Amino acid sequence: MRHEPAVLRTRAAVRASLRDLPAGSTVLAAVSGGADSLALAAALAHTATRLPLTAGAVVVDHGLQPGSAEQAVRAVGQCRELGLDPVLLHAVKVGRTGGPEAAARAARYAVLKTVDADAVLLGHTLDDQAETVLLGLARGSGARSLSGMSAIAGRYRRPFLGVRRTETRAACRALGLEVWHDPHNADPAYTRVRVRREVLPALEAAIGPGVVEALARSADLLRDDADALDEWADKAAADGLALAALSALPAAVRTRVLRRAAIAAGAPAGALTSRHVAEMDRLVLDWHGQGPVSLPGGLVAERSYDRLLLR
After folding, report:
1. Measured between alpha carbons, how far is 233 from 262 in angstroms, rounded to an integer?
2. For strand 87-91 and strand 54-61, is the pairing parallel, antiparallel, or unpaired?
3. CB 33 within 8 A of CB 180
4. Strand order in the sheet with 87-91
5. Which of 49, 241, 251, 264 can bridge 308 by disulfide, Cβ–Cβ 3.0-4.6 Å?
6. What are the chain's domains?
7. How far apart are the C-alpha atoms of 222 and 287, rounded to whole Å?
């Protein structure tokens, strides 16, 4: 059963993701007990002995439903049976800021930031990537948001962004792993669940198969574009907020410079909207004597002679 196509596929994905790490590096898989993370843990355990790497896991108990502690202990046991060591267990208290999904994610990443590892593997799949792109489209987000999740972001790595969720489930079945089905993943109160269970199937029924893969390809292309524009904006920001220099920039670059300047001056990134940036942009390109623009965090943007000032 270990030579099932899904098992080989998950192993190949993890091996490709870790190939650049020096021998002896410590890699931890973030494990919830669901199919994606257990398939990730199994693939890491198999791959680590061949590279070679020190392979372990970190299990986070969010405590959001009855029995979560028992499930976390079960996930720890399965990771150890796979041969992972160390296997760390952390219980967290999830706050309320940003809603339950965002709060749980914040609590989880707060733990992952503290673990001692050269790389931390996350079990996001191709399906998760497609859902992320659709959610960004629905929110009217820009290219950076629509570019989805990166395969590598700092020490975080996502080996399964080219692997379907059906494959991780098949791998777990083939390996005899006991998968936990988080009830939150079936609760239509969550927008992502509705996208997963209603929107994507409707798109595939109307357009045909391959929608998930097409959305992920779009994310890859947009990420390249966003990276190039961000690099341009970084260089342009070195000139400060001189109006002549800002006016000469393409809109996509200029608005990035303005947004970054506002955040650097103290505007909370989550509260700074496209409307705020557009009003700042009007001070540069469409100024008819209008007064200062109020920004989040108690900031004000205003035009002063040949410069844009943030105070």
Report:
1. 14
2. parallel
3. yes
4. 87-91, 54-61, 26-31, 119-121, 156-157, 152-153
5. 241
6. 5-207 (3.40.50.620), 239-310 (3.30.465.60)
7. 32
User: Phi first, then psi: what are they for 293, rounded to 5°?
Assistant: -105, 125
**Count of C-beta atoms within a 10 Å radius of residue 285:** 11
pLDDT per residue rounded down to tens, the chain (311 residues): 567 999 999 999 999 999 999 999 999 999 999 999 999 999 999 999 988 999 999 999 887 777 788 999 999 999 999 999 999 999 888 877 767 777 888 889 999 999 999 999 999 999 999 999 999 888 877 888 889 999 999 999 999 999 999 999 999 999 999 998 888 788 888 889 999 999 999 999 999 999 999 999 999 999 999 999 999 999 999 888 999 999 999 999 999 999 999 999 999 987 899 999 999 999 999 999 999 999 999 999 999 989 999 99
CA separation, residue 301 to residues 95, 149, 297 (Å): 33, 32, 12
Name every residue whose Cβ is closer than 8 Å to that of residue 97 and which is 6 or more positions away in sequence: 103, 106
